[in-house]
Amino acid sequence: MSGITAYIPYVQIILSILLMGGILIQQTEAGLGTAFGGGDGFSSGHHTKRGSERTIFIGTIIIAILFAATSFSLLLL
Known about the structure:
There is one protein chain. The protein has helices at residues 2-25, 32-35, 41-44, 52-76. It has one domain (1-26, 50-77). By secondary structure, the chain is an all-alpha fold.
């Protein structure tokens, strides 16, 4: 088991870089103008994610779950 715990910090570094990239690459419509009711009609209504936007969103969730799982497993080991 000591061999696995030696690689977990490196896996966490890779997952954290991927997680930051996934979060930063997502499109955001939460500007100051939309906070006060401004903006276009697209951002004021319901918006479903499609195509690459949905893939990036789901991938970011998966990476976040993997990062949390590796952190928790390091706690238990």
